[in-house]
Amino acid sequence: MKEQSTTKGFAILSMAGMAVKILSVIYIPLMMKIIGEEGYGLYGASYQVYAFVFVLTNAGIPVAISKLISELNAVGNYRDAVRGFKIARFILVILGIVMASFLIIFSGPLASITKYNKAYLSLLTLAPAIFFTSIASAYRGYFQGRANMTPTAVSQVIEQIVNTIFALVFAAYLMRYGVEVGCTGGPIGTSFGALASATFLIYCYEKNKKIKLPQNYVEVSRTRLTTSQLVKKIIKYGVPITLCVGMTYAGSIVDLTNTKTRLMVGGISDTNATILYGYLNKYQQLLNVPIAIISSLSAAILPAISAAFAVKDRKRVKDKINYSFRLCFLIAIPCAVGFSVLSGHIYELLKFGKAYYIMECGSIVLVLMSIMQIQTTILQSVGKLFTATFYSVIGIVVKICINYVLIAIPNINILGAIVGSIVGFVIPIILNHIIIRKSLNAKVSLIRHAVKPAIASVMMGIVVFASSFAMDFIFGFIKIAYIPNAISTIVSVLVGIITYVFTMALIGGIRKRDMELLPGTVRKLIPGFILRKVK
């Protein structure tokens, strides 16, 4: 099994992540067609609870595996790297059994606490997915620690395809028994997808479990780690990460209850409050498409920074940090601008209803989420695990407080959650930036990395707006409403991509060495007039 560069690993994971998220977004209107607006609201509510249990099980230890293996491999301690993985895998399997049992036993009370009593069956049927994902997560951490992202990427695509097929089939079949039962189709699909993913990863591990040593490697007498020491390292790395991500999702659970309750305080009925929460869930699902790329970047840079930090290569650590922020802004800013400008068109294309104003106002959250995710990964890589957790908690508390006040105001209602998210991300971003600069004694200028993508994105936004307006006018004669919007949206997105890349090339935001990192098939798709502008 070959080790991949950070860039190649990122490219593989991001392409898979995009494919997965696009599939999940396409799946939403199909699922809504089957279970309806209220049903989708219930499904979204049950999934938030599942996500919380999922991160408590799977957020920390897989990252700990990746970090531990990359560090031990960096110093040539390959035997302990393998032993550490096997110990962590055992812990994850036990944890998966415990947490799946917890969800089965407490699905009723959890549905009641969140004020979504009808989501009980959906929560119950999500329990097997917790166990299967705990197995899959262990192997993903192993492969990422060995700097091979291909098994993780392929497993994610397999999981989403299986999930989509089984979810739609079971939802369609079970809707004859009512909305509550029909909503269990999605969770059943999630469990089948997780099983397929785990099976594929086990196959890959069995096929590639032998570590190929470097050509110049010489076995030397080195201090071996005991089982107790390895367990302590796994706990040291895993617990803070679990707390960090867990607190974020705990905030989402509080938000889930808080949102519905405060909407009803503002005079909105129970059913309409559930539908509005469904709108918020769709908005978050759309944000998750580009966030999948940022998550891929995080997964790729964590073992790279951890390995460099383990051998005290400070220059390489700084280079990786600057590289990650540069890529972060290169992706997040144009996506946010595009979402805002084309929000109405995208919502109509995906049959998401009339709640496009949420994306129009809230696309900036995408940039903030991306920055914070990269910052958290950096802090985890250099050992500042509890610091990242503490700052995340501060942001969550602020977000919950703002949501509580604003959502109950009738003229603001669901948009209060957007304001809460913006402030809830800005505060930890500032605190994270300060601690990164102090800890590494490195000048990391977020503004410097963001300026060129921002200029190019503004230009792109203007062109996209004009393009969509022109397309709407030209194809307005077509009587079927969906077709002109679909044409306008697709053409505008393509025009936007070309405009952004061309502007970035003109102002020096994209360089020749960036182009050299792209796969040959991708470079061939870039128009010649753009390539000629790259310096």
Would you kindly provide a written description of the structure presented here, covering whatever features stand out?
The chain has 535 residues and is mainly alpha-helical. It folds into three domains: 13-209, no CATH class; 266-332 and 354-444, no CATH class; 446-535, no CATH class. Helix content is 82%, strand content 0%. It has helices spanning 6-58, 60-74, 78-113, 120-145, 150-174, 179-182, 185-208, 227-265, 270-310, 314-341, 343-349, 356-362, 364-381, 385-406, 415-440, 446-474, 482-506, 512-517, 520-525, 528-531. The longest helix has 53 residues, at 6-58. The chain is globular, with a radius of gyration of 23 Å. 52% of the residues are buried. The model has no long low-confidence stretch (mean pLDDT 80).
Helix and strand succession?
Answer: HHHHHHHHHHHHHHHHHHHH
Task: Outline the low-pLDDT stretches.
Answer: none
Q: Give the termini separation.
A: 35 Å
Quaternary form: single chain
Main sheet specs: none
Number of strands: 0
| Structure classification | mainly alpha
Q: What would you call the shape? A: globular
Rounded mean pLDDT score: 80
Number of helical segments with 4 or more residues: 20
Number of domains: 3
User: What is the alpha-carbon Rg in Å?
Assistant: 23 Å
Specify the helix fraction band.
over 70%
Strand content: under 5%
Subcellular location: Cell membrane
Membrane topology: Multi-pass membrane protein
Keywords: Cell membrane, Membrane, Transmembrane, Transmembrane helix
InterPro entries: PG_synth_SpoVB (IPR024923), Poly_Biosynth_Transport (IPR050833), Polysacc_synth (IPR002797)
